[in-house]
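Subject: complex prediction, re-run

Hi both,

The earlier run crashed halfway through, so I resubmitted it with identical inputs.
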Amino acid sequence: MTNQHFIYLLRLADSPLILAQRLSEWCGHGPVLEEDLALSNMALDLIGQARLLLTHAGRVESRDRDEDQLAFLRMENKYRNLTIVELPNGDFGQTVTRNFLFSAYQVELWKRLQISTDTELAAIAAKSIKESTYHLSHSAEWVIRLGDGTEESHLRMQTALDQLWPYSAELFTSDDTDRSMAESGIGVDPSAFKTDWQSTVSQVIGEATLTLPADTPFVSSGKAGQHSEHMGHLLGELQYLQRTFPGAQW
Amino acid sequence: MVATPLTEEQAWSVLRTVPDPEIPVISVTELGIVREIRTGPGEVTVVVTPTYSGCPATEVIAASIRDALQAAGAGNVHIETRLSPPWTTDWLAPQAAEKLRAYGIAPPGSRTASQTIRFVAPSPQCPRCGEKKTTRLSEFGSTACKAMYRCPSCLEPFEYFKPI
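This time it finished cleanly. Structure:
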């Protein structure tokens, strides 16, 4: 039970952590200054959420691991993020499309976790939902503006959606950990809010004049610790400082 | 020499002089993040609710609170983080709005229970010339808590403290 609770919290923490790492790559490279600021600001929110969740996970695990050890010193197969967040950024269109699919998911997730029996998790959810709602609005605005934009921007947004869509299946897979956390009232089974997520997504995609791709049999497995080939490279950068100067502090 | 214990009221007075590091015209108490102060023999506990999860000012604020209280003779200072209920701009002190405006930041409007996915962009009054119809430039600004706007009347850009 404790172990499942720990794994569940790692899953919740790792997706924001890894997406924050990807969004940080945009710092200094944004297409316009305002979006450079926006992507870095959102990365900051996500790092903040990850820190709270990792600190809490460390306490639940009771093995004296703090947020830094958990963020920087695990092996690749111990990270439990959804695969979609570790994929390379692609162009700006692909980055905002992923932000959109992910924030829409986070909003539904936080909404339900606000009543978690784990009171610390409930508090983190109540705080994070405000931030994720803002991220959702930001990304939805761009999906609509670029999807329903020029011929070129429309094409790029459709390509982004087509490429990312197969990775959305993993968002709603549930395993023993999810089910046991849902039963205990600590967590929520993600399959329970698939319809709500779909309704947000199809509304925005429709307004953006884009076409929802068909589902495929492919299901990624990042939350089980099996990652894409991109994860090792991402961790190389994320972990560089702590691996080179163990125990370094700000 | 034994430090004279600080009373709760004295501790509050000290914190009223500790500025927010990013918006130094308002104090940490006016920002509404100090939720409770408890005093005991030779120690003070300050309960702080952070604004945004990743706000980099959080640690600077904790350090400034500790320094100010210790300088006032508080002895041991404990900073306790309380996440729930989450911070809201409704907790800003009434006088904070005028201070923000004078500093060039439009104060947050009332929170709208947004039922839409897309932004419903408010039109905050220009803090410089008072123009009511302003344009949003960006949903994000120099810090997590602000958005960027432009005034079509005095042509100046300004920041808006986002209501959350």
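Residues 33-61 of chain A form the longest helix (29 residues).

- K.
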